[in-house]
What we know:
This protein is an alpha+beta fold. The chain is 39% helix and 17% strand.
Amino acid sequence: MSLAGKLRRITLDRQGLLKSNSFGRGKKAVLRAIERLGYVQIDTISVVARAHHHVLWSRVDNYQPKFLERLVKERKLFEYWSHAAAWLPMSDYRFALPRMRKLNGERDWFSDCDRKLQREILQRIEIDGPMRARDFADPDHRSDGWWEWKPAKQALEQLFMQGELMVSAREGFQKLYDLPQRVLPDWVDTREPDIDEFAAHLVDANLQAHGFASLVSMTYLRKGKALRSAVKRLLDGRLEDRSLTTVSLEGGAELYIDPQLLDSRAPRCRAQLRILSPFDNTVIQRQRGRELFDFDYQIECYLPEDRREYGYFCLPMLYRDRFVGRLDCKAHRAEGCLEIKSLHLEQPTDDAFAGAFRREILSFAAFNGCDQIRIDANGSNRFLQALRSEL
């Protein structure tokens, strides 16, 4: 097996995508999955199931949204910013503190921040308990988009980002804000890490989630030369004591990996297809996808329509240990129908692919609350033709 092939299997195994129920089943499996991944991104787009549910369904066969809701209610997860809005393990709370502190004094999340309004909101929540943005509604305010949120909404988000408020729950998709002292469990470590502790957290979290990582991926969207230097210093120390070694793919970055993991037998791989979320932890870093999987993935909903090649919300398709294509579909929940708009296959497949595709698309439809599949895609794709004739 090539080095690239072995690394692909290592990272997919760590991500819980090589076999069914790598983390077990039920609510406990959901927590184990998030603890391994480090975060699960929250996204509002609902063309198909929202990203956080989709990512977890891909790893826990009997996943239900109520599992995530209960873990939040039990204070085992908290909501904050990773590279984007995310649910994170409560045990990692202290590593969110550096960003909170930076936004509480050095700079604001919003350019126009009303300090007086923030103080008034904090006082009201302290007295009245958890509140939503709409509890501060201004009937005379008009908004055309999120960039024109009413001042109270901006103040709530500023207080949330700087750690003076937390999201205690969501009602529908509405955030419920409360004071940290009423949300954080007693056991949570609230000491802010120094830069070396934070660097160690980034290194360990990336190695745990992926099995290996480059310096660039470990510091992905983390600003500051001092932090990058601290991470590099830590990595150099681990190379020196031989707890880490390095490998490189042709034309790719230097990758840090535990030598024992590198020398171990590659995880086994089954003829299984997975339809993943565009925000899945495995594909979120585009450079890593290009170097390791030879798969240049970009979500296209943010592109103008005339620049889209694969579709508004094209979903990456993982078969065995390779990304083989993209599927563009939409869940019409009121009709109970999953619409397939296009299927693009970019890698050769074997005889087992057709059965794997059928099983996954039926499972994906059910996950999205659909008991019918409508195929609108044109062309000669034989997998869609076979599915259309069967349906």
